[in-house]
């Protein structure tokens, strides 16, 4: 990979990371505030706590796995050797 | 006065940290002889994924993760947990946005600190010195506040005096940071992160058995304090607080220099990818368990806030009430680990600012260069002296320290947010914009904080970030775009050869 391609890839990854953070915010709203009116409780704990707190954590992990598996690419960080 | 035997677990832990640092110092001997600053301040860019994740998470989570936050959860309920969980984004965000770009650039220009990168990008010594000043001021006040928080907790839980606790972990962290350098800090941070998680799990277990199990405690809370089960906690948790926190402890943490510097330190892209996943798992688990402990402690500490003094006393009292003195002595390792892992990173960042960013640069401008052994002497001396100064201030802390500490997080974010983002992603950004954004933004933030001016009852970080952006754009319009030589380093994709 040429140095300019690496930078282009890094830009793509940064954008995808911002989108991922936005997705976590949307999920957090829906799974927390969105479920706040539900009467369902698990272990005497309301559903929005499980969705908005534990759920958001799981969702963030899944999003990060997706990012690193599907969007992020491996390349050599040292440019000097490749210019040969 | 407490029983000396109960201090044994903490002592063993701290001696372990010293041992690790001493070992790392010995194994890095050769690298330090070649290029001291690079090995000492950035670990020779050799961190693997696990250590990178743990050191980023441990630096981020502090004594307030253990004490202040859970104490507030005891008052507010699940709303506080819902707010705290926004922190799951902090690790993947900083590593995903800046991680690769700053690593590529740092290798190109041989940068050791975030300020090295800013200096090269904006070609401004004024900006670099301003950044160093902001970092030193905010880092020092954060370190003092960390020491004070942990020493108070130590006193409340073990029965030994404040100064005993402070001297014990305060002096040890200064010593091990000084000898271990960045790699020592990173590896001890990883151990600290593990100690935090183990400590939290033991406390959670102890509380469950003291309170008659999770369901039992939740049943008590749902009948006695139903407001604690609502996200807005009947007005105690307004929407504006949620928005403020998303910015202050979520999105804007992107630009905290103590996190961004970790982007310079890792070995390869695989390590970065793995660190993003591990870091997100760890930071989420810590936040969930610690804050959940706070909510549940309502089932054990059933009286009003007056009976316990202040919010910061809730967790120490919960520890003493739910665990035997021996186990209390074990889990105190958790918050101490949280404290020393934050202090060690900040201490090293501060001394690198002073030695590398300011002093060595001044010498360089005069055309003088420092020999490797002089860099060694100055770096070690700066770290130890700074550490001792912070320790001395913490012995008899000024009462204003808490307010200064509240400044610090938002102040660092305001100072670095746009300067880093535009610097690395916007070729047209120039030094006039950056200087205006950093200086003006911090000024607006501090003044509005001091005068308690708020916009729509949102935290002052909103004003700081907004004005910083505005000033950046205005300042930028007045200056010229930097020349091609700089831009080729930072934006090679714009110059197709």
Annotation keywords:
heterodimer, A: about 80 residues, mainly alpha, about 65% helix, B: about 500 residues, Sodium/glucose cotransporter, 24 helices, about 75% helix, globular
What does this protein look like?
The complex is a heterodimer of chains A (84) and B (497). By secondary structure, chain A is mainly alpha-helical. Chain A has one domain. Chain A has helices spanning 3-31, 47-71, and strands spanning 41-42, 45-46. In chain A, strands 1-2 form a two-stranded antiparallel ribbon. By secondary structure, chain B is mainly alpha-helical. Chain B has a single domain (4-399), classed as Sodium/glucose cotransporter. Chain B is built from 24 helices and no strands. Chain B starts with 7 loop residues before the first helix and ends in a 7-residue tail after the last helix. The interface between A and B is large, with 50 and 49 residues.
Q: In summary, what is this structure?
A:
The complex is a heterodimer of chains A (about 80) and B (about 500). Chain A has about 80 residues and is mainly α.
